[in-house]
Amino acid sequence: MRYVSTRGSAPVLDFEQVTLTGLAADGGLYVPEAWPRFSADQIADMAGLSYVETAVRVMLPFVGDSLDEDALRRLCEQAYQGRFAHGAVTPLVQLDHRHWLLELFHGPTLAFKDVAMQLLGLLFERFITGAKDHLTVVGATSGDTGSAAIDALAGREGVDIFMLHPRGRVSEVQRRQMTTVLAPNVHNIAIDGNFDQAQALVKAMFNDPGFSGKFALSAVNSINWARLMAQIVYYFYAAVRLGAPEREVAFSVPTGNFGDVFAGYVAARMGLPVVRLIVATNINDILHRALSSGDYSVGEVTPTAAPSMDIQVSSNFERLLFDLGGRDGGALSAQMKAFEADRRLQLSNSQCEGAATLFTSCRVDPDEMALALRRTHESAGQVVDPHTAIALSAARSAELPGDVPVVTLATAHPAKFGDAVERATGVRPTLPPRVGDLFEREERYDVIHATFDDVTAHIAELATPRS
User: Fold this and answer.
1) Which key words are in the record (predicted)?
2) Among 65, 217, 245, 390, which one is least packed by beta carbons within 10 Å?
3) Quick one: pLDDT at residue 340?
4) Rounded to whole angstroms, how far apart are CA atoms 245 and 157?
5) Do the beta carbons of residue 15 and residue 24 sit within 8 Å?
């Protein structure tokens, strides 16, 4: 398996190289040179498999010669056995005759990011063993990526992690899950700005030769292909349990950075019978506008009770545009550079038509979110978080064929957003016992101005340069 950049001019890499590299040298994102394809029989053979064995079968085509099957299985066992509070890792919960929740929050930090990050941390450790350079991981988070990445990398040798979060724009639980990890290789940075600024700073670090040349940089955001690869697994795991490949399935995904729903797109390209991917946004609706009218233009970020979706620039959308635009790296590079200059982009006809075959989208306002929280509790006895409620609202409003089952991705434990849940339902969700002392732990983080010079100067003081 070889990986190419969406912008066409970066070196072609193997899986190990692409995992350690993160962002491509030309500013693009890496994708497989071709999508692997499973037959209906191969998908049917996944019935009854454990999550670990499903993960091995789904991910094996992507790792190429970088890992053999036994090595991949050992990493998956280490990532998923004992680190997740549910034996199924990502269990399905039935809401009614048609709607299901796919619970992705049973990992150590109570969010879907754990599913990929626990594996990514192990991949980093394996691939940097014996390497001459210390790895410097930099990332930006709107809430859940940071805590999942820090949990996965804390205390691991040969790697430091620097995580940027927008000060005051993540929930208190999300912040504390990052800032109470006091391992010496963990560095939390609160910037005076929003997530889009944090994400732009991280991309700028990779694209600046003076900085990126000084450190062995890598990424844990979903710009890193290995993150997305691990997320493809639970689409197969859920769909097979609902009758795939004989039965089509729809998925509703609460979406900010487009990584989780792009993993669903890849699953469909691999042969999984996905009839629809419902892209659920809050009032920060750039993806809804892009998919419904082709208008991918940046607006102001409005803080909401679903902070992980308070995003205007969705990094992984570039991967979709590349695939739908005929995989023309030169054309996509020009399109993205114009977007970066003008903060607006009009999808081409082929991109719009290609997206319409699989995607539909929905913008959910705060009142609709609160209504979905309340109705889910009253009708099904399920307490969900605001992001999941947005996806449930979108799922129930989507026009879908026949009796296709609809799986809504439950991306976070409701206790991470206790205030919003309690306002809507009257129920105060409690943290699981394994993180119940979170509010008693010591915090440690640095507040830095959201400028390239200030952030990179801070990181340069603490990071280990290339040898």
Assistant:
1) Amino-acid biosynthesis, Lyase, Pyridoxal phosphate, Threonine biosynthesis
2) 65
3) 92
4) 42
5) no
- For residues 415 and 280, what is the distance between their CA atoms, to the nearest angstrom? 21
Q: Point out the catalytic residue in the list 113, 132, 203, 337.
A: 113
453 CB-contact burial (10 Å; exposed 0-12 / middle 13-18 / buried 19+): exposed
Q: What single DSSP character describes residue 254?
A: E
What's the topology of domain 92-111+226-425? Rossmann fold (3.40.50)
For 296-308, what is each residue's pLDDT tens digit? 999 999 999 999 8
At residue 129, the pLDDT reads 77
Find residue 281's DSSP bridge partners.
363
Q: What is the pLDDT at residue 252?
A: 98
Who's near 55: CB < 8 A, 6+ residues apart? 76, 80, 119, 230, 233
The pLDDT assigned to 130 comes to: 67
Please enumerate in sequence order all residues whose Cβ is within 8 A of that of 246, keeping only pairs 6 or more positions apart, or say none: 44
Which one, of 466, 438, 453, lies nearest residue 108 by Cα? Answer: 438
Q: Strand 3-5 to strand 30-32: parallel, antiparallel, or no bridges (unpaired)?
A: antiparallel
| Count of positions (residues) in the chain | 467
Per the CB < 8 A criterion, the answer to whether 232 and 58 are in contact is: yes
Query: Per residue in 367-411, pLDDT tens?
Result: 999 999 999 999 999 999 999 999 999 999 999 988 899 999 999
Is 162:131 a contact under the CB 8 Å cutoff? no
Surface-to-core class of residue 214, CB atoms within 10 Å of its CB (0-12 exposed, 13-18 middle, 19+ buried): middle
Give the residues of the chain that fall short of pLDDT 70.
Answer: 130
Q: State residue 22's pLDDT score.
A: 85
Q: Can you tell me the distance from the alpha carbon of 78 to that of 123, in angstroms, rounded to the nearest whole number?
A: 11
What are the structural domain ranges in the chain? 92-111+226-425
Residue 113 is among the residues annotated as catalytic for this protein: yes
Q: Give the span between the Cα atoms of 124 and 21, in whole angstroms.
A: 11
